[in-house]
Input
Amino acid sequence: MVVLRALAADSNGSSSGDGSARIGIASQVRSATAEKNGAHIVGPAPITVFVAVCVRLYREGLAAALSAQTRLRIMGMASNSAEASVELRRLRPDVVIVDVGGDNALGLIRLIREESPASRILAFAVREDISAILECANAGADGFATANSSVTDVAEAIERV
Output
């Protein structure tokens, strides 16, 4: 897994120099309040995830594997950019996993960044290719994972972005 914020800054030559753009960003802390019998229970809210992966086996397998993680909640899935853009406007998930090999993947990353800037983007690819990583970073992705990553690695990447 690669966190891309620092890579995008480095590739553009515009790193802030204050150390704020660095690999190894701390996990975001999320909390939610739930009501039960009039009492407030405070605990971590699950991170909502949308899976936009063109290959059905990867999409469904990734969603099923990530669903087993108690800190993650799969909100939806899409097999192409057009379907994803419609669903993302409606759902507004915390994290979107975008298949780099899918149709118009960079366009989808840009669209998510414009229309839902609070959503974090984890680019997903079959193989790790530095030019694809940099293209994703420049389009607005926050992280990059390959199909060779473990479920634990992907779950950690989702928490980090």
The first helix runs from residue 5 to 12. Residues 6-37 have pLDDT under 50 and may be disordered. The beta strands are 2-3, 32-36, 39-43, 47-52, 72-78, 95-99, 120-125, 143-146.
